[in-house]
Amino acid sequence: MADLQDELRTATEVDALDALAGPFADEPYEPVSDPDAEPLERAHVILAAHPVADGYSGLPWALRHLPWFDLELGESAVDTDVPRMREGHVGALFWSLHLPEGLDGDPAVGATLEQLDLVKTVVRAHPEGLRLALTAGQATDVHNCGRVAVLLGPAGAAALGDSLGILRSLHALGLRVLTLSGVSWASEAGLTRFGEEVLREMNRLGVLADLSGASADTVRRAFAVSKAPVLFTRSAARALRPHPANLPDDLLAELGAAKGLCMVPLTAEQTGPSVRDVADHLDHLRAVAGPECVGLSGTYDAGTAHPQDLADASCYPHLIAELLRRDWAESGIALLTWGNVQRVLRGADFTARAAQQRREPSTAKIAELDG
Asked: How far apart are CA 149 and CA 266, in angstroms?
C-alpha cells in the first residue's frame, strides 16, 4: 500500500506539472514584459498573461445584505465587482461559503445550501463577467473567454452535518474546498478516525482540504493522510506576525515538503498595514516553503481591514509591482498568481481519478468510528 501511495503522489505531481505552461514547461520561461519599463506597467503586462487566482472571497455573505446589486456595472457597497476584478487582473476567485460562528447540525447544512444557491444565482445573473468553474481546465477556459472563473469554497466542516453522503451531495453541487476545523472530528486534538475518513473521501471526490485555522495536530495528520495537495486559504507567516491563523516556520517547511499551497491574505490583521508588509510575508513563505507553495488570498468582503494600496480587488498590480522592485522573476510571479493554484487543482483532480478506480464511496458513520 505504501508503494501505491508513493506512486500516486509522484504521478499527481508529474501530471500537474506537465499540464501547466510557462514556469512548469520543459522549455525556458519566456518573459512577457519589458524589463526596462516601470514596475507598475510591468505588473499589468505580467498579470494580463498570468492573472490572479484569488483564494478567498467573502462576497456571497456580503451580497445577502444588499437589496439590489449589479456586479457587472460595478457595486460600491462591496470590495469586489467585475470592473475592479478586471482592473486587478483577477482570473479566478474562490467564493467562501463559510457561515457565522455557532451554526452547526441541520442549520449549518441548510445555510450552506442557501449560500450555494445564492452563488449560482449571482453567476447566472452576470453572464458577461462571471462563469462557474469546477476544474483547473475550466478556470483557464473561462479566463480565456474574458470572464472571471468562480470556484465554490471553502465551506466550513459543519456543512457536512457529520455525513459523508452530504459531502458527496455538496461536491455534486460544485463544492471544491472544505475547511477542516470547528467540528468534533477536526478539532484542537487533531483528526479523529472519522475525520481521516472524511479526508480520504474528499480525496476520492476531488475536494481540497483547507487547513487555515486548523490546529497543528490536524494540519500534520492531514499532511500524512491526504494524497492530494492541501490548502491554507488564509494564512501568512507567524514569524512575521503572530496571528493564530498564520503558520510557524516548521509547519511551512512541512507544507513545502507536502507540496501544498499557502495563500497569503491581504489583511492588515494577518500581514500588516502596508503592501510592503504583504511582500515581506511572500518573501518569507517563498524562502521557507518554496516558490511552488505560495499563493494570494484577497480576503475581500470578509469584514477585515486591508493594507494600504490593497483596498479592493483592483489593487493586485500594486503588490506585483512591489515584488518586481524586490527582483522577483516573472516566472516566480506567474507561479504565485496562477500556476500554483492550477497545480493544486490538477493534483486534486488526478488524485480523485486514481482513487475512484480503487475505492468505493465510503459508508462510514461517525458513531461507528468515533463512538
From this structure: 20
Domain membership flag for residue 34: no
Q: Residue 338 is part of which domain span?
A: 2-28+43-370
Instruction: Confirm whether 37 is domain-assigned.
Output: no
CA distances (Å), 287 to each of 237, 337, 339, in order?
Answer: 11, 17, 18
Residue of 246, 241, 175, 234 whose CA lies nearest to 206: 175
| C-alpha atoms less than 13 angstroms from C-alpha of 243 in its C-beta half-sphere | 19
* Per-residue pLDDT tens over the stretch 24-75: 444 578 899 888 899 999 999 999 999 999 999 999 999 998 999 999 999 9
Any long-range contacts for 142-149 (C-beta under 8 Å, 24+ apart)? 142/91, 142/92, 143/51, 143/91, 143/92, 148/82, 148/85, 148/86, 148/90, 148/91, 148/92, 148/93, 149/91, 149/92, 149/93
Is the pLDDT reported for residue 346 higher than 60? yes
38 within some domain: no
Could you tell me the CATH number of the domain that includes residue 313? Answer: 3.20.20.140
Q: Is residue 179 part of a domain?
A: yes
- Number of folded domains that form the chain: 1
